[in-house]
Specification:
Elements (H helix, E strand, L loop, with lengths): L6 H10 L3 H14 L8 E5 L4 H16 L5 E8 L4 H13 L4 E5 L2 H6 L7 H18 L4 E3 L4 H14 L9 E3 L7 E3 L7 H10 L10 H7 L9 H13 L5 H8 L10 E4 L2 E4 L5
Parallel strand pairs: 1-2, 1-4, 2-3, 4-6
Antiparallel strand pairs: 5-6, 7-8
Helix pairs in contact: 7-10
Length: about 280
């Protein structure tokens, strides 16, 4: 009679068995194709407590077990001012998933929510990243890993076109401009959000959503402010998928095959170039 698997073993097994095609293989594809993990790396796996970063932590943990590449992982949780319930859920989920988190405090929510004009989300994101880089460097890391996925890449590209008046994608890795020697990587670059959600439901895992008090207040106020442009893009893609099932794949491939010969202008290193320069 075979030994009954524990809850943790079933969760880990689901990544490489049940969701091998949807999650594990695309994860490995992204790590290899973009050379995200190398010998000697010490990577700060940045965990917000949401589904994406928690799955990323498990994927990198599994990769460390099976890979010939010699690298270290630090599972870093920044508490920007979570309420007690959210902080406890993060700790409980980390324990259930056997993720040995390192937690440090900040006051980012208080600072971001004190902004008088507009949404503080951009400020919050910038401050979060700065704190994570700083803590990771203090711990001797040379990289931070964020949980952005395939669907984020698609949505960010369309958001830039529709509302930012520019074609701007999301890189799988980039060098920090403010923290010398530090690099940001996105190991789930090829993993789709729908498959992440399916994995969570399959394992009965419940993670926190955005825990910002600003977002909670306006989303629950009924005045529509909480309806994000990103959600509009999600609905648009869902509608387009009905007649073109490959729509997301096509968008993803297009940002890897930009034909500059057909572009009237482009930016590089912050400098604008016109097609007239070479006309």
């Amino acid at each position: 009679m075979s030994r009954e698997l524990t809850d943790l073993q079933l969760i880990e097994r689901s990544i490489i068995k049940k969701f091998r095609k949807e999650i594990w293989n695309p994860f490995i594809e992204g790590v290899k194709n973009y050379q995200l993990v190398n010998d000697g790396d010490k990577i700060a796996v940045c965990i917000s407590g949401g589904k994406d970063s928690m799955l990323m932590a498990k994927l990198l943990q599994q990769l460390q077990r099976v890979s010939d590449t010699d690298f270290e992982l630090v599972y870093l949780v920044m508490d920007p001012g979570y309420n007690h319930e959210n902080r406890q859920r993060i700790e409980d989920n980390a324990k259930r998933l056997n993720i040995p988190i390192t937690v440090f405090e900040s006051k980012i929510f208080d600072v971001a929510n004190s902004v008088n004009e507009g949404s503080p989300c951009y400020l919050c994101a910038r401050m979060r990243r700065g704190h994570l880089y700083s803590k990771a460097k203090e711990l001797g890391c040379n990289k931070i890993a964020l949980g952005h996925h395939f669907t984020d890449v698609i949505e960010t590209t369309l958001l830039g076109m529709f509302y930012g008046s520019q074609i701007q994608a999301m890189l799988p890795k980039l060098h920090s401009t403010n923290f010398e020697g530090m690099e940001l990587i996105r190991p789930m670059y090829c993993v789709r959000e729908d498959d992440i959600i399916r994995w969570c439901k399959y394992n009965d895992l419940h993670f926190i959503q955005c825990a910002c008090r600003f977002v909670e207040a306006y989303t629950n106020s009924g005045d529509g402010i909480g309806e994000s442009k990103r959600q509009e893009i999600k609905m648009l893609i869902k509608e387009l998928r009905k007649t073109n099932p490959d729509i997301e794949h096509n968008i993803f491939k297009s940002i890897h095959a930009v034909c500059l010969d057909t572009m009237p202008g482009y930016k590089q290193d912050g400098e604008y170039h016109s097609f007239l320069d070479k006309f």
